[in-house]
Amino acid sequence: MESKQRKWVAGTPPLAPQLFFLFHCSGCGHPLVERLVCEVIGELDIAGRTVNVSGAGCSSGFFIRAVDTDGFMGPHGRAADIATAMKRVHPDNIVYTVQGDGDCIAIGAEGFLNAAGRAEKITVIMVNNANYGTTGGQMAPTSLMGQVTSTTPGGRTVNQGFPMHVAELAASIKGCAYSARGAVNSPSNYKRTKKFVKTALQKQMNNLGFSFVEILSMCPSVWHLTPAESLKFISDKMIPEFPLGEFKNVDIL
Questions:
Q1: pLDDT value for 3
Q2: Around 98, how many Cα atoms within 13 Å sit in the side-chain half-sphere?
Q3: Domain range for residue 89?
Q4: Cα–Cα–Cα angle for 84, 17, 95, rounded to 5 degrees
Q5: Which of 212, 36, 244 shows the shortest CA–CA distance to 124?
Q6: Is residue 22 in some structural domain?
């Protein structure tokens, strides 16, 4: 009988510890982002030279424990700055950040925008759950108009400003080689987002400029919704405001 070679096709990714799903609230989208990144790093066969830099928030300390590569947790908002230093000192490494929307485009906006402007050869992954999930659900730069948060109990109004469209903003910066927005609220969106992350890391592997992927993610605990309702909230509320797709994909800056 002809022998058949077995290969992994489903289940916990080889680069992920078995219990990494236990770090998060029920229905949270972060474990799906962690799984997605583990799969991409494994498929690109770059685990031995990959470094994850995390900021503060749900995407920070949890992510370091969730992905079996080198990692560093920096101060709130400073992930892009730290990743820049790491990449310049070790240019052969693949350096990426995983940051929440507040960590990336509120307190971390200076580091993020200037890294993109300098065409730093790093990849930033921003998880957008439209609030500050770790600290009690305050309004974030990405909170939707009318969204009720702990700091906008009557819903976000013009007085609090408008949601930041970060993927489009990154695409407008000349030093950015790739910018995309995905989501993890459905199997089809998960697969599409996985392609975005893989392309972003490949841009870095090809020694091009800054690359960025925004990922819409569920936050049932702070949204005060069930996990199923949270999936619908992304499809009905978030995606109309934050359309999915690639916003920039170039090979020459």
A1: 57
A2: 30
A3: 29-150+160-249
A4: 10
A5: 212
A6: no
